Amino acid sequence: MSILRGKHIILGVTAGIAAYKTAFLVRLLVKLGAEVRIIMTPAAKEFITPLTLSTLSNHPVVSNFTNEEDENAVWNNHVELGLWADLFIIAPATANTLSKMVSGNSDNLLIATYLSAKCPVYFAPAMDLDMYNHPTTQSALKTLQSYGNVLIPSAFGELASGLVGMGRMAEPDEIVNTVENHILAGLPLYGKKILITAGPTYEAIDPVRFIGNYASGKMGFELANSAANKGAEVILVSGPTHCKIDSNRVTTHAVFTAKEMYKVVHQHFSSVDAAILSAAVADYRPKKTALSKIKKTSESLLLELEKTEDILASLGAVKAHQFLVGFALETDDEVANAIKKLKSKNLDLIVLNSLKDFGAGFGVPTNKITIIDKDLNQTKHPLKTKAEVADDILEELIKRTHG
Ligand code: CTP
């Protein structure tokens, strides 16, 4: 899943031959799940038709302050458009548009919206080599960057004039990559690697039966999703679950048993900055797994169980720089038990949920948590969706690991 999914993007198209490439750019952005609205300068319509771009973006293209062909015309509100946008990409940005962006000459809807927008603005210059190299253009590029706009550099190559040099607009996929990387680099967990465990474990009794629990995996998958959305690279180790995740920053390892989970977690632990263990690991497993299906030949059956590896405690015992977060699911003496686990497993943070709280725990879409840190500070959170709870946990981690 791209970081651009769900983002509101204004694409400003100005009058350069590279405008034909914006059809591909719009297609790419829409494919990645962004909502795209397009503003064209009036002259840009000579290079690509509004019909092409409105069809690809699923929205009417706007170009003037009013829709003059419509007798009931309403004002195209550049202020509202500017506020709607999470991102503004101007591609191609001609020399004329660059100069208007510098001077604030808002004689078209695109520049008026640019001046109203509060979101990050990216611009991809496109022009012939001499125009590009002219001191006026070079000075505009510097000035616009000094205002906080992000330059998507032009490339060297063959130009529409037949000359060869600097000034080609970046290709649509390069524009998308630059925007994605710039957004990622600004996120609080960018450059951090986080290990997360999720789901139940299944401990085999015989080839057809196991000891398991009702954990759905939802909490762990929401944690992985939230961490990835905050820029982290995530290693998700999950027991059997129906949950799915679609993010190119999450690597999922599917396991069945506590032993397998232990092994995969320890393979990765030394390379991560933090670990959040939300899996409901079975505490006991059958001492012996029958090789054939156990037949019901006797009136009663005794299964001898042995303790599984305590994965969280084993990480607490070896942790160096890693920030370690555990969960405690309790029914009685909740806070006291959670503090006991926090200390005995050498954690930095413990997330307590009580099965006495309505809407907390297994199989429900919500959770109600109290977060306790090493200094025993407690933060109680109201009942929230598991996605919101995941955000709360990661915010607490960010607060304690940054600066
Ligand atoms: N945990 C683990 N490995 C286990 C058991 C638990 O990593 N074998 C982790 C869980 O992922 C969770 C935390 O330990 O983060 C607490 O799990 P919980 O079952 O509440 O606690 P236990 O230590 O198993 O203690 P008890 O069952 O006695 O409450």
Q: What key attributes describe this structure?
A:
binds cytidine-5'-triphosphate, Rossmann fold, 21 strands, eight-stranded mixed sheet, 2 domains, alpha/beta, 403 residues
> How would you classify the helix and strand content by structural class?
alpha/beta
Give the integer mean of the pLDDT values.
94
Low-confidence spans? none
Care to count the β-strands?
A: 21
Task: Say what the CATH topology of the largest domain is.
Answer: Rossmann fold
Strand content: 15-25%
CATH class of the largest domain, please? Alpha Beta
Please tally the helical runs, counting DSSP H or I stretches of 4 or more residues.
Answer: 13
Give the helix level as a range of percent. 25-40%
What is the second-level CATH architecture of the largest domain?
A: 3-Layer(aba) Sandwich
Q: Report the bound ligands by name, code or SMILES.
A: cytidine-5'-triphosphate
- Number of spatially distinct domains: 2
Task: Tell the overall outline.
Answer: elongated
Q: Major sheet, described briefly?
A: 8 strands, mixed
* Separation of the first and last Cα atoms: 29 Å
Looking at CATH, the homologous superfamily of the largest domain is: CoaB-like
Radius of gyration: 28 Å
